[in-house]
Amino acid sequence: MSRRTTLALSTTGLLAAGAALAALASRPARRDVPEIPTASGGRRPVRVIIAGGGFMLLREEIMGQALTTLFAVVWGTASVLLIFYSCNLLTQLLKTKRYNAVIPYVFIGPAVLIMGWYLFLPTVRSLMLSFMDKQSERFVGFENYRYVFTDPTMLTSVRNTILWLVFGTLFSVLFGLIAAVLADRSHIERLGKTLIFLPMAISLVGAGLIWKFIYAYRPAGDNQIGLLNAIIVSVFGRKPHNWLGTAPANNLFLIAIFVWLQTGFALVVFSAALKAVSTEMIEAARIDGAGEFKILMRIVIPDIAGSIATVSTTILLAALKCFDIVFSMTNGLYGTEVLASQQYKQMFKFLHYGRGSAIAVVILLGVSPVIWYNLKEFNKREVF
After folding, report:
1. pLDDT greater than 70 at residue 5
2. What angle do CA 353, 338, 207 make, to 5 degrees?
3. What is the mean pLDDT of residues 162-176?
4. Which domains does the chain carry?
């Protein structure tokens, strides 16, 4: 038996063994765990406290879950590596010309299949459910779409989503470009870029919790724990303001959090693009008497127009799908609902799968032109 055949068979055996072990690890947990009586008369599983700390000997089912998770990670990673390695060995049996034609599909094919399984099929399923009733049992036509574009709450969500798209993208790109231009001419360029980029390391929920203490409101006469209201009351002697409870301005305060997060991303891309602008052209413009603002508008911005378009479309996608900030700050109250938050509530709170799927399809239709434009631009810049 050849080496390649042996490796292929061993790979198959390992996968089969892994599947058997996974099934064994995920077996139902035992219920005969020894218990001891508690002071209240109840019973609890045996727990072992190590060195007075918080380490406990968990029930067998918890250990089973932990072992299953660990095994899934190890077995899944090893299986993927073995699949690719075995496929590569099998393709090496082909002639050179055919090998060169097949090998890209060997490595890209599994990823395409997996992505198709997780993206294409759910999309088709969502499209089908969007024409069904709440329990996905009866066909209702375009009733769910009529709800999306006629219900007052949904109209508010559409309006707020447009605000996020326009102001979130506009100010993120504008502040990122200004920061990139100023940092490029500063003596503390690295420090400045680091400080502006740091919020990118924070999750959207984490950013929402941070800004919740900035916008926090207490009635007049109480101690103000919110930074803005503390400044208003103690410095200016005015009454505190309910920043998140006043519509529609509260949407702009939420968008400010999004801009704070996305400005760092825009800064990094624009800073790299500015480094590629021809210094000879800029110097020639200065010799001809052009001012800095004119150089920026006539030379720099047209030269980095591709980067501006890429950043704008990327932030547009993030704004259209933004859910975390709204959910963690207001939960959609006080007129702050967006399409993404309404989709979540319809699907998982009201359990109306038809309306939730219809909102998901509307969001997909809104995202599709932006994705198409990005792919078009990437194809233009492809160098392979």
Report:
1. no
2. 115
3. 93
4. 3-93 (no CATH), 143-381 (1.10.3720.10)
